[in-house]
Backbone:
């Protein structure tokens, strides 16, 4: 199959599942924001972020190694999968010795057991689902995503509405859903065929760990950029403001969802095409289409942000809209920076991923402490944007060492400028702001529409050749 057709096919399959899942989650935002106070939502946000901080440490980021090495035709699939599961189990056993430490941390001590269960099941599910994706079982991977979303919603309804378990019920829903997913994937994909913990090539395990371990600080640094602001906002502004800020974070997930769907297909294509002589042309074309899509999505969200907020959240959460515009542009550059992750992974340059992410994380933390006391949660949002922007710029420059491809800098700069003006107008709430916003959106569409026509034409020509 032609490489463009293959990418489109994979992305469409991932999209079918992801959009179904995210639409269901978005429809339940009014339910969550009515059943949970802003304080509850802030506490949940801290619990989930704490667990996500532990996941790469406990698993040694082995999931990254599982998918990269499972796609290597010279390596036995059972070696990759068994190394992944075995690493998670050993890592969790070591992690269990640190329970007393968690019990001494006031704001998470009551939820220590939930955090531990969350970490274990998230690690196991990640290894299983990514291995299934690497096996090429895209439809099964997609179905699992849709099914688990429906299940977590069912558990949420039972625990939040019927049993009224609040914070505990919300987190327990996620844990039980991961349990169901692991059992389902093992059964449907017959993963037991690949689980041979006592028959693993030591050489492959060492290679996987050598590749994965540098991804631990990378994931931690990425977590710092994504989540450290929540803790600092809580410290300076209180859990209630963090609850609003956490709710605001949900709306830019429209962008990260679209980006994430694309990245799942792009990662497979980037690795598969890396050894081909025309990879630079392929990478350049894909980035051109991707950046147009992301900027247009961001522009539309900024235009309709107040409407989206009214629809998605309870009245008590409405002030959260003011934090969304800067988080939207932060999500844009997060997506663009992650685009380069696949380039680094293809070249097995995991250390370079770590270094670039560290720079962004360090900048993020420093700016959070400087800006949040003075500008509140929007200071955190700006710090997040600035750090992602820096990471993106560094990766554009650094990746040319081993995988050079061109970017339409002029069009990129215009898109960035238009979106920045939109955000400034929205935050300032100038008179007739809606008119200015619509004009700017139309200008951005006119600038980027040609890229979409080019993409369609390229896909049609590829189908004819096929």
Residues:
């Amino acid at each position: 199959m032609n490489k463009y057709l293959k990418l489109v096919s994979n992305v469409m399959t991932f999209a079918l599942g992801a959009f179904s899942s995210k639409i269901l989650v978005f429809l339940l935002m009014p339910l969550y924001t009515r059943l949970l106070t802003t304080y509850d939502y802030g506490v949940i946000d801290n619990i989930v972020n704490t667990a996500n901080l532990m996941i790469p440490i406990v698993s040694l980021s082995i999931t990254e190694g599982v998918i990269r090495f499972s796609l290597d035709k010279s390596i036995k699939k059972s070696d990759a999968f068994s190394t992944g599961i075995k690493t998670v189990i050993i890592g969790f056993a070591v992690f269990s010795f640190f329970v007393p430490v968690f019990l001494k941390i006031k704001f998470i001590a009551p939820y220590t057991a939930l955090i531990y269960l969350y970490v274990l099941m998230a690690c196991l599910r990640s290894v299983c689902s990514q291995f299934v994706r690497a096996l090429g079982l895209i439809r099964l991977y997609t179905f699992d995503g849709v099914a688990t979303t429906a299940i977590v919603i069912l558990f949420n309804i039972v625990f939040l509405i019927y049993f009224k378990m609040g914070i505990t019920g919300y987190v327990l829903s996620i844990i039980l859903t991961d349990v169901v997913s692991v059992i389902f994937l093992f059964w449907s994909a017959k993963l037991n065929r690949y689980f041979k913990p006592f028959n693993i090539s030591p050489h492959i395990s060492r290679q996987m760990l050598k590749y994965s371990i540098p991804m631990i600080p990378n994931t931690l640094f990425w977590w710092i950029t994504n989540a450290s602001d929540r803790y600092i906002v809580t410290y300076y502004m209180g859990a209630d403001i963090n609850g609003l800020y956490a709710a605001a974070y949900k709306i830019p997930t429209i962008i990260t969802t679209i980006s994430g769907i694309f990245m799942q297909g792009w990662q497979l294509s980037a690795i598969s095409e890396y050894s081909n002589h025309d990879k630079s042309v392929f990478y350049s074309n894909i980035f051109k289409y991707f950046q147009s899509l992301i900027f247009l999505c961001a522009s539309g969200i900024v235009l309709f942000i107040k409407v989206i907020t009214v629809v998605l959240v309870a009245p008590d959460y409405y002030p959260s809209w003011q934090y969304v515009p800067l988080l939207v542009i932060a999500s844009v550059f997060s997506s663009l920076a992650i685009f380069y992750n696949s380039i680094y992974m293809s070249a097995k340059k995991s250390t370079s991923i770590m270094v670039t992410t560290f720079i962004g994380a360090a900048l993020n933390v420093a700016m959070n402490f400087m800006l949040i006391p003075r500008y509140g949660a929007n200071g955190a949002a700006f710090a997040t944007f600035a750090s992602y922007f820096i990471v993106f710029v560094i990766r554009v420059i650094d990746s040319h060492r081993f995988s050079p491809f061109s970017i339409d800098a002029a069009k990129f700069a215009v898109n960035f400028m238009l979106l920045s003006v939109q955000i400034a107008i929205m935050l300032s709430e100038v008179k007739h702001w809606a008119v200015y916003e619509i004009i700017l959106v139309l200008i951005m569409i006119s600038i980027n529409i040609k890229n979409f026509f080019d993409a369609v034409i390229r896909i049609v020509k590829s189908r004819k050749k096929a």
User: Anything to note?
Assistant: DSSP finds 20 helices and no strands in the chain.
